[in-house]
Every structure is written in C-alpha cells, then in structure tokens.
Amino acid sequence: MRRLWGVLVVLLVLAGCTTERVGGDPDRTEAPTGPLDLEIPIELARVSPAAAGKSTDARTLPEPDGNKLAVDEPFLTITRLEHAKTQVEHNTGNWSLLITMTEEDGAVLSRWTAEHIGARVAMIADGVIVSAPMVQSPIPGREVTITARYTRDEAEALLNRITGR
Questions:
Q1: At a CB cut-off of 8 Å and minimum separation 6, what does 79 contact?
Q2: Could you tell me the pLDDT band of residue 147, with boundaries at 50, 70 and 90?
Q3: Which site among 46, 93, 139, 156 is 20 to 30 Å from 57 CA-CA?
Q4: Phi, psi (rounded to 5 degrees) for 160
Q5: How many domains, the chain?
Q6: Mean pLDDT within 133-154
Q7: What CATH number did the domain enclosing 135 receive?
Q8: Alpha-helical segments (H) within the chain
Q9: Domain assignment of residue 24, yes or no
C-alpha cells in the first residue's frame, strides 16, 4: 500500500450533521452496518513533548511520510466502532474516514481533549501514526473524521485494514 500521505488532521463531526440520500451517495463508502470489532485497534496517545528518545515513557513510531514521533503510552485503545465509512471532503477533493466511537470511548476522548488543549494526539494503527493533530478545542461526541490527502483507494484500504474487511 502506498504510504505517501499528507498532513493528517482529526476533525470533529457532530452527530446528526449529515444526511444520507436515498439510493446511496457516490461520495461515501459505507462499512458493514452495525457495530464493528476492529481487526487492528486504533490507539490514541499524546505526542511526547520531550525530544524523541529522552522520555523513558515514550516510544518512537513512524508517520506515513517516514518521519518519527515520540509518543507516550496510549490513553485510549479503540477496539470497537459503532460505525465507520469513507467520504470525500468537498472542499479539498481528498478522501477521509468518518468513525463513530462507542459512548465510553467518546467520553474518554472528550475528557482527554478538554484537559490537553495545545497538545498533539497521535492516532496509531498497526504501529504507524496515521494522524497527529494538535488539540485546538475539546472534542465532544463520538464522531471523528480522519482527514489527509487520501485517494479513495487509500482511505478504503485504511478502513479495510482496521476493520478486517
């Protein structure tokens, strides 16, 4: 799988902000209906403010572009999603993943982001950082969009990897 990915950003998407069209939407690819047990868990960890290798609690992991970041131990490991799909970002034409976490995981992320404004949070799948944005505000709710310069194939490949489809 091609690993040339752009800058990744995690954006909040509020529940109920989207509507489905009758007959489906060609700009969205639905995952299996209902809750999903992930084949590859998604870990969320703070990007270590210490320099790589200087923090005893940090591990160094690669980003898709080959750069490495030091990350602390995960504060959340997501093993189940209520829903997941790919969609096109109309303002950029790039593809993204929209995930809906469980109530419990959404509450953990909401609390953590409220307490860590200005910190970077790494989303890790299969030992690779797929996103490491800076927390600009608390992320309430359960829906999160993972955006990048994904092509449709890349977004679907990532979704398929984590869900085991």
A1: 37, 38, 41
A2: confident
A3: 139
A4: -65, -40
A5: 1
A6: 90
A7: 3.30.1360.200
A8: 103-115, 152-163
A9: no
